[in-house]
Design brief:
The complex is a heterodimer.
Chain A: H1 5-12, E1 27-34, E2 39-48, E3 51-60, H2 63-76, H3 81-85, H4 89-96, H5 103-126
Antiparallel strand pairs in A: 1-2, 2-3
Helix pairs in contact in A: 1-2, 2-5, 4-5
Chain B: H1 49-52, H2 63-77, H3 87-108, H4 110-120, H5 122-125, H6 134-152, H7 158-198, H8 203-237
The chains are: A alpha+beta, B mainly alpha.
């Protein structure tokens, strides 16, 4: 089965590959995996004033998993926390034209976004009030 | 003696799709075949693969016995023997054979067998979500970076040779970890079977059951991640 042009593009030129330090201020880390295929995905966001100013990812997996997480980081940048919560795996499926057998890759990316947001929230809530 | 017991009055091990023969409407009393009109009967689609092969839901299976059963049933249902039969009988023989092949493939491999059993028992396990192994993931992603570096390096150079040595050591460690996970699984399989054999159903055994299912799920998942990165390592270094 052939990958769509967009998947190939993200695969060949992944956007925002890399990572932030986990304990850095305003950084939320989402770490998810799919045991069925052995894929591992790490997605990080950097938040300032409730807005995601930067996002990075590292993915070990197939082309669709890499493209899904690459696209996710692109979309996350500039979004508020609230807007980011609304990203759905179906949006990724549509944008990348993923075939049915690769839908789980987009689910993984959505899970990673959710995990990163939750991690950021947890860290923010744990901070003393005067640090804000 | 209870004559109404479903398995008490006939010799069939397999549950069939219907208790009436699809052809002559008489009660199916023979094994897989109607005794009156001698037509082959379809195996129930709801059968789990353990039952399909006539085995109890256990994680340790005698492979020789499994093979024997597979050949025996293969002979009974093989499409070659139905070439001169009616279209319905050919379809049934094909369906039964397909199910048999899948069941055999699934049960033959201990890991696949365990994955399958976990799926069957999933109803109870769904609530026990295992958290992703963050340390293992970090390790895998880091290793992935080293692999990328190696792919971009001239293999005959000093750096290339150093990276290769490092990756070989990583591969060795990971393979060892995979083996140790398999040993742990083997023990859990034995524990699971022992629990099933005891057949008690009280709160204590339920706790034990959930613990075993959760641990198996966890190790099976981690093993899958390790296996994936080892395959990648082997393919890259080769």
């Amino acid at each position: 089965m052939a990958y769509s042009d967009k998947v190939v593009d993200h695969f060949n030129n992944p956007r925002n590959m890399g990572s932030f330090k986990k304990d850095e201020d305003g950084v939320g880390t989402g770490m998810v995996g799919a045991p069925e295929c052995g894929d591992v995905m790490k997605l990080q966001i950097k938040v300032q004033n409730d807005t995601i100013v930067d996002a990075k990812f590292k993915t070990f997996g197939c082309g669709s998993a890499i493209a899904s997480s690459s696209l996710a980081t692109e979309w996350l940048k500039g979004k508020t926390i609230e807007e980011a919560q609304k990203i759905k795996n179906t949006d990724i499926v549509q944008e990348l034209n993923l075939p049915p057998v690769k839908i789980h890759c987009s689910v993984l990316a959505e899970d990673a976004i959710k995990a990163a947001l939750a991690d950021y929230q947890k860290k923010a809530d744990g901070q003393p009030a005067d640090a804000k | 003696m209870d004559h109404h017991h479903t398995h008490g009055t006939n010799s069939r091990e397999l549950q069939m799709a219907r208790s009436m023969c699809w052809h002559c409407q008489s009660e199916v009393s023979g094994e897989y075949f109607c005794e009156r009109c001698v037509k082959v009967q379809p195996v129930s689609k709801d059968l789990d693969y353990f039952t399909c092969m006539g085995f109890p839901r256990r994680l340790t299976i005698d492979l020789r016995q499994l093979e024997t059963k597979f050949y025996e049933l293969s002979r009974a249902f093989h499409p070659d023997f139905f070439q001169n039969k009616s279209e319905e009988e050919q379809t049934i023989s094909l369906g039964n054979s397909a199910m048999l092949n899948t069941a055999y493939r699934m049960l033959r491999d201990p890991i696949q067998r365990a994955e399958y059993l976990l799926d069957l028992e999933a109803g109870a396990v769904k609530e026990i979500r295992t958290s992703p192994p963050a340390d293992l993931f970090e390790e895998i992603l880091e290793l992935q970076d080293t692999l990328d570096e190696y792919r971009a390096t001239d293999r005959t150079s000093e750096t290339g040779r150093q990276l290769r040595t490092k990756l070989l050591a990583e591969q060795h460690t990971l393979e060892q970890r995979k083996r140790s996970m398999e040993t742990q699984l083997q023990q859990l399989f034995t524990d699971w079977d022992a629990l099933q054999d005891r057949g008690e159903a009280n709160s204590q055994t339920r706790v034990e059951r959930d613990r075993l299912l959760k641990q198996m799920r966890e190790i099976l998942s981690n093993r899958a991640y390790v296996k994936n990165i080892v395959n990648d390592l082997v393919a890259t270094i080769a």
